[in-house]
Amino acid sequence: MIHTNRILPYISTGILFTLLYIFGKFALESPLLCGIGFIGVISTTIVCVLNLTNHKTATHIFLVGLFFFIIIGLGMHLGGLNPIQNPDKDWLLYHNSGLEIYKHISEGPFFLAISDSFFHYRFFSLLIGLLYTITLPTPIMTLLLNAILSALTIVFLYALSRSVGVTRQSAIVIGAIGSLYPSFLIFANIPLKEALVLSLAFGALLCLIQTTKIQYSKWLLLIPFIISIPLYTLREPFWYALMGAVTVTILFWWTNTNKIKRLGITLLFLTTASFSPILFGDGYAGINKLSFFATKERISYYREVVFTKEHGTESSGSTLIFKTELDKPVSFIKNYISSYGMVLLGPLPHQVHGKQKFILIETILLYLIIIGVILGTVKAIKKRSPVLILTLFSISILSVLALYIPNIGIIVRLRIVSILLLLPTLGLFFDNTPWIKKIINKIPA
């Protein structure tokens, strides 16, 4: 039973933020006051849950991360570095769709409007429409929501690290590295869907890995199942990667369950989860979309036309041209390996020009991370650590990027989840390297 003295401060704080939200939305129509009240209510709820479940370190990480990401997001916006100031960006599509849904909800019965919007818009646009309805129709609200989701992502990253055996101090360092990873810092704190995708994927993977432990119920598998529905409409390759992660986890890490039962649960999960793409018109298990994109012509079209400015074999701006040549297996494998190397290690110094050179900071950090991850993976394989589930998910996403996308800017944005999921393996490397562990152990746990 929860003691009244423990929960009373959160109730009081929540009431204060609720009053601020009501005053900001209905009395002054102030985005700042309404936004502060809105994120205050959500944040208070999250902190309450974390504290009442005795996750004090996670609470501190969430609060520090939330404050940090709000400062970064609003700082970029007010400083003119945010795509809000540039009308030629993806955020405008989401914003306009969100406004349409907001107007649709305002004009019609709420639940009818929501159900109608669900089948006509993608999930992130629907979420923005709901956000605008609850708060005020301005992109700053999306920034504030993304700050919460980014902070949650870092909490999940910390929890993932702990769940695969990383010590508390090293997990804190991993969370700090993740929060400072340049692409995450930028793309997760502007009005795009990155923060939502990351928080959902990390939450699903955390629950999945927890099912490998005796003290947790296998019913936790229901959470990845539920998350898989919005995850599909947000980013389809992540859905397939999650299906693969679930399959591998049940078959190879549920060691306390007999093989027949493992196989049965795997088939049950996959067959039922595969119905969700039907909701979005993509057929069972997304077969309609797969049959459209997984063809020789489409792969060549995306690699050589869609994301390029001109044909050829040389770099074009932020795009590197890799011929597909599916009809020549040796050439295709060679080109695919080169493309995969660029996805994982790029951009190289000679591939960036002008303002793009700041990306080299990320590249240098990435090389250091990969060195540690390789050494940590060796330890993980020997111990059969569940961190390998995260590695397989990461590799799956990178493989798809290498097949379809040659554009450096898009790759840097879409590989964020893959890089962050490699960080728990880096944590294992820290714990198994005496001189690094000695330094990290000085951090208060």
Architecture overview:
It is a single chain. This protein has 21 helices and no strands. The protein is an all-alpha fold and 445 residues long. It has a domain at 1-54. The longest helix has 25 residues, at 139-163.
Task: Please give the structural blueprint.
Blueprint: H1 4-27, H2 31-52, H3 56-78, H4 90-107, H5 110-120, H6 123-134, H7 139-163, H8 168-180, H9 182-187, H10 194-210, H11 222-234, H12 236-253, H13 259-273, H14 287-293, H15 296-306, H16 329-345, H17 359-383, H18 387-404, H19 408-414, H20 416-431, H21 434-440
How would you spell out the order of helices and strands?
HHHHHHHHHHHHHHHHHHHHH
Radius of gyration: 22 Å
Say how many strands there are: 0
Counting helices, strands and paired strands, the structural category is mainly alpha
Largest sheet: none
Number of helices: 21
* Straight-line distance between termini: 27 Å
Residues in helices, as a percent range: over 70%
Fraction in beta strands: under 5%
What is the mean pLDDT? 84
- Low-pLDDT sequence parts: 82-88, 310-317
Q: Please state the overall shape, judged from the principal axes of the Cα atoms.
A: globular
Question: Which structural traits does this protein have?
Answer:
single chain, 445 residues, mainly alpha, 73% helix, globular
Short description:
This protein is an all-alpha fold.
